[in-house]
Amino acid sequence: MKKILAFVAILFIVFLALVYWSVSSTDKEFETCEIQNFEDLEKIDFKDHDSVLVAPSSLYEGNILKEFMQGKNYREAWSTPVKVPIAFLDTLKGGLKIKKEGGGKQTHSLKLESKDGTIYTLRSVTKDPKKLIPEVAEDLGLENIIVDGISAQHPFGAILAAKLAEISGVLHTHPNMLFIPKQDALGEYNKKYGNRLYLLEYETESEKNWTSFKNVDEIVETKDLQELKQEKGDNLSIDRAALIKARLFDLLIGDWDRHAEQWGWVLVKEDNKLKAIPLAGDRDNAFFNLSGVIPSIITNEKIEPLVRPYEKEIDYMPGLVYPFDRYFLLDTPKELYVEQAKQLQKSLTNEAIKDAFQVLPEQIAKLDQAEISEKLKSRRDNLVEYAVAFHSIIQEKGALNEPLKGSEDLDLENSPLIRCFECK
């Protein structure tokens, strides 16, 4: 018995040593993109250039030990230089002005407005997870576990997800990757936001209709939709079929981070009523490829059920069902899930999936197309089964007993709207 305990103790010590060796490869917590071929950026007039060769980040480069302990993830995609268009706010989309700075936990963002009133968001490709690092992790010198976890996100994942959404008939925010140099138009944000890589996309709230839908009243966020429901009652409904399709699409691309604040709603006028069409935003976690010894332990369903790695098969469906789903889809017939699953299977043929990867830079597609395609096709083939399971879990968990995320300050305490969108 003593020998067994001694052996276990030795294994534990070796494991701790490997952990610290792996996480000590860098002490950096944040780094912006790495621009190629320019030595002194302050001396470069980017108006003389139309594009720049840039790697999203070299922060996640790792040796064999790091890949074993913390996963291979998308390290190569992050460190591979690609050609990206250069943009200036005073000419982009006819001229954009900054409305305000966003407040995300990882993403640095700016809300921008065009001359015609259309709202856009400029979202940093490189993430800053400092706010997510627990004090105990810093005290133990393990903050790199959190920082390095960003390598599981694909820097071009949102762009690929948008193309697949377009093929599938799922509404999206049309993200495009741009390099934003330092410029006067950034004003007080020039130092923080200049010379960085961004996704420019439509905002999930807007008084201006940028979608292909006709008779749009406005585009609102989930909290505003709930307030409007209080006012209009049965004269406001959501397009449940569209939401089911959007959520099943999330399962296909492995986007596990789909809480209520990640959605907008396009309000379409139909006679004297309004129908809300779901609009998914923030696709940072599409194709979330998390591997390695440490992440596998942390993301075990018993420890962290919500963070699910992108594999050929969905390993834990309950972790992918959000309060959002129960709120909006409770008591929706199972047949509607099956119908939408079959529609997605019909749209996302092997040829369509292959064509979708053309939106990625060639060198990035060469790195990740084969693996992502294999997982996507496998999930597509099993989508009807997943749809039935998704429906079953929603029904099993039932209505909510607390507000949706982002709606905590709404006065819903004595309203059935706290439980579900169509609760009476």
TrEMBL record:
It comes from the Bacteria. This is Uncharacterized protein.
